[in-house]
Write a structure and sequence with these properties.
It is a single chain. The protein is mainly β and 238 residues long. It has one domain. It has 3 helices and 14 strands.
């Protein structure tokens, strides 16, 4: 699923770079879209957005000392469209083994709650996303027992089987210190409601208590400094 993000939550080009699709059925679900494997990026759905500065983010001075004058750390982006359900679950468990992570699933007629960890199975959902401190995986069902996936994360190497979407990327903290906004306003029952959505949204796993919930994010910048992708992030635990 995908969703449009509030302009204030990211730079001008970020909405396009994030791969969100405001026009998709799932897009009406959350404020930080999920993935739909398109030619350039996958469009998954998530009702998430970010806050916080990643502990791993380098300063410009640190990056220069390491041989790259640009801020941030090396990052990668890639897609794969031949995953089975079991293969996708292995990928998720391998990518987010022990670090704090969250996931979200959706289909055209339903939005799941944001939950902690990684999904135990994919039954009942046509798309989803999982994100941790340094990476995000978005997925969408692409036929009988086949899934397409988008990987966005820090590092210099993509998981096996993924083809790169762009090279020489750098990951930096999201421009908004408090992160991306999620859909909805918190009610007395702790659920978030948005007039355009038929059902309330559950962000309890995020520990959200503010009237408007947010989620941390990272911007993946190209060599020209332009935002190419945005991925959700979880706060690291000590």
């Amino acid at each position: 699923m995908s969703a449009d993000e509030r302009p204030a939550a990211q730079p001008p080009d970020a909405a396009t770079a994030s791969g969100l699709d405001p026009g998709s059925p799932a897009g009406a679900a959350g404020e930080a879209g999920m993935m739909a494997p398109a030619a350039a990026e996958t469009d998954v759905v998530a009702a998430t957005a970010g806050r916080g500065t990643p502990p791993a983010a380098q300063s410009a001075a640190e990056a220069e000392a390491a041989g790259d004058a640009r801020p941030g750390v090396p990052a990668v982006a890639g897609v794969r469209d031949d995953l089975t359900a079991d293969g996708l679950l292995v990928l998720l468990r391998t990518t987010f083994p022990e670090s704090r992570a969250h996931y979200w699933g959706a289909r055209v007629d339903a939005l799941g709650p944001i939950a902690a960890g990684v999904p135990a199975d994919l039954a009942g959902w046509s798309e989803g996303r999982v994100w941790g401190a340094r990476a995000e995986v978005r997925w969408r069902r692409a036929g009988a027992e086949r899934y397409s996936a988008l990987y966005l994360g820090e590092g210099e190497t993509l998981p096996d089987g993924f083809r790169p979407l762009a090279g020489d990327l750098r990951a930096v903290p999201g421009a908004e210190a408090e992160g991306l906004f999620l859909w909805g306003t918190r009610g007395a029952d702790g659920l978030y409601r948005e007039p355009r959505l038929p059902h309330p949204l559950d962000y309890a796993a995020l520990g959200a208590t503010a009237p408007e919930a947010r989620v941390p994010c990272r911007l993946l910048l190209g060599p020209d400094g332009q935002v190419r992708f945005i991925h959700l992030a979880a706060e690291e635990t000590a």
